[in-house]
Amino acid sequence: MPSGVKPGKYFVQGDEAIAEGAIAAGCRFFAGYPITPSSETSETMARRLPEVGGICLQMEDELASIHSVGAASVGGLKAMTISSGPGISLKLEGLGWGIKNEIPYVVADIQRAGPSNGVATRVGQGDFYTVRYGSAGGNSSLIALSPKSTQEAFDLTIECFNLSEIFRCPVFLLSDETVGHTRELLVIPEETRLNVVKRFKPTVPPEQFAMYPLDTPGVINYPFPNIGEGYGICVSPYTHNSKGYASTAQDIQEKMARRLVFKITENLGRLVRVEKQKMEDAEFAVVAYGGNARPAIAAVDIARESGMKVGFFRPIIVWPFPDGEVLKVAEKVKTILVCELNIDGQLSREVGRAAKGKAEVHHLGSGGVEPHLPAQIFNEIRRLYK
Amino acid sequence: MSTVGDTLQVFHPLVAKYLRKERMPHMACPGCGIGQVVHATLLAIEELGLTPKDTVWVQGVGCNSRITYSTWVGDNVDAHHGRIFAVATGLKMARPDMNFILFTGDGDCGAIGGNHFIHACRRNLDVTAILFNNGIYGMTGGQVAPTSPVGAVTTTTPYGNIEDPFDMCQMAVTAGASYVARWKSTDFKPLVNSIKKGIQVKGLAFIEVLLQCPTNFGRYVLKTSQPQEVLKWIKEHSVNKKDAEKLTAEEIAGKYLLGEFIYRPERSGIVERYQEFLKKYQKE
After folding, report:
1. Is the same domain home to A20 and A160?
2. Does residue A109 lie in a domain region?
């Protein structure tokens, strides 16, 4: 199968960069349901995947998309689906099946202003908790990465695929309409310069292989045998033992729940990725993620020009949340201003929790439609700066 | 024969060959028809020479799935409630060389998964789907199903069901499946032949089986716990498609038609079409 990597410089939207990143990561199955502002990814996949022998389907609904993607991964193909707010709500039903059976695949969420249908064509950042806690039943952890640019949309999509194989779980790319529809420079490097993780395969015979490593909950880089490889795998939404046989035993439920949480929480060191700017001498920190990081960085630059000691902090891997990194920031500065495109305060709440009272945490929210303007953020910095 | 604990277990040769002994005995209630359908499926597999290497069992959620999942000696994929056709689409597209046998129920396929069922038929996905129709929600304790007869008293229709039942075979024909048939659980030989035909046909094969559920359909709808009474009811409420031609509309009202409704082996499906499409557009 051809790699599909087309090195070069491109002037494209973030949504298109996701498709190129997925193909470069080895994605060969894509299923989606059209929804603004994510459809450009589906359209790019529909054009590009057949060129590399991949399969692209427009399914009958969001549920079918995510379930066929999980199943295609069980069938041996790296797979991805994409959506936005109202579609993500539906996809969460299928996400549980992927989490439970430890199936590697990627879901991209191009956030728009919500709730419900909201404003389909305009930006919002309301799915921060939805992707993390939306899957019913708890007893799981989740990985989500958030790009701020077209280039990062490409780079982080590859990283999402890699982490999904390493941790054997669905991974979210939590983008937003700003990044999705911003047309800017994308540099695709030579294939040899890309780090692509292949699916881990068992090295022991089927009778010795535990499909679900319940007794070693923190293990990563764990193999995933696909159907047709002689391992007689059992995939099931019910709580199951290490072979995949359903069980109602309390100890099996306990082990399964621990496995699904601990495989991520015992490897947090592998999952810290943040951006810091001008934090060395900062007394005030501005925190933002995704597309809204861009006006935040501009506002920090304006504040610096005005002589204020302001720095910038951004979680790139947003889930698991970088508690330790945020605490370091909180211990350094007096005030933290969190800028995000929701009124309820989602990222702010996490920052407030992780800051442990070491700094004052303020929320600058917006219902969405437009990203924050640098001047809005700068005015808030000026108001709060001591 | 083998011993599990202190119990001497004697396995049917088809069970010994194709099912996981450690998953036996199965969970079916006494008198349930699911075992008959599984028997017919295993015989079809045996007669066609399918193997665990080339065949996958796929289940949804419901009695039939709970009883059959993780029992096949090969690969087993159990879907969320209603998502069996969506899951089968991903599996079959990823592994077009393998056979997929789907076990689904009237709630799984006709209610919560109805949309996926329609579109799998429209795409004519090359899988064999066996619908276990017991006319009621069995696993959850006797609630009304989209297949329950009018007037049926169930735990959620205590005053009798006022809705008409869903003829899923007609839906499968209309939506585009290659092969559609309906049998009773007691029509053993036609059922075996039908499953064989379904596995061999290109495109989607949809085989509905009317089966007895003494535990819930018997208890709530027919006020009996006797499997033979439920079987008798099914017999009285079904008629062979050819025999029905001689009956008046009044005589066949409320009866299930049995037999083959369509067989169009020439109709291609998404799997075949995608392969052809890829050959055309794949660039080296």
Report:
1. yes
2. yes
Q: Could you give the CA distance from residue B161 to residue B154 in angstroms, rounded to a whole number?
A: 8
Flag whether A256 is in a domain: no
* A186/A284 same-domain check: no
Q: Which domain holds residue A58?
A: 8-193
* Domain end position, chosen among A193, A226, A258: A193
Closest residue in chain A to residue B271, using alpha carbons only: A55
Same-domain check for residues A292 and A186: no
Q: Are residues A180 and A306 in the same domain?
A: no
Residue among A141, A113, A42 nearest A368 (CA): A113
**pTM, whole model, 2 decimals?**
0.97
Chain A, chain B: beta-carbon pairs less than 8 Å apart: 145
Pairing of strands A335-340, B99-105: unpaired
A90 at B interface, C-beta within 8 A: no
Helix or strand or coil: residue A203?
Answer: coil
Q: Which residues partner with B179 through β-bridges?
A: B205, B263
Minimal C-alpha gap between B54 and chain A (Å): 7
Q: Are B62 and B105 in contact (CB under 8 A)?
A: yes
Residues A48 and A172 grouped into a single domain: yes
For A383, list phi and psi in degrees, rounded to 5. -65, -35
0.90 surpassed by complex ipTM: yes
Domains of chain B by residue range? 13-281
How confident is the model over B151-178, as pLDDT tens digits?
999 999 999 999 999 999 999 999 999 9
The Cβ-side half-sphere exposure at A235, using a 13 Å CA radius, reads: 34
A69 contacts in chain B (CB < 8 Å): 90
- Please tell me the predicted confidence (pLDDT) of residue B283: 57
CATH number attached to the domain at B13-281: 3.40.50.970
Question: Is A231–B74 a contact, with Cβ atoms under 8 angstroms apart?
Answer: no
Closest residue of chain B to A31, computed from CA coordinates: B90
**Is the four-CA dihedral A55, A57, A63, A64 of positive or negative sign?**
negative
Q: Which of A99, A235, A238 to mutate to test the interface with B (most CBs of B within 10 A)?
A: A235
Same domain, A25 and A164: yes
Question: What span, in angstroms and rounded, lies between the C-alpha atoms of A191 and B42?
Answer: 48
Write the pLDDT tens digit of every residue in A16-58.
Answer: 999 999 999 999 999 999 999 999 999 999 999 999 999 999 9
Residue B90 has its nearest CB partner, among A53, A68, A240, at: A68
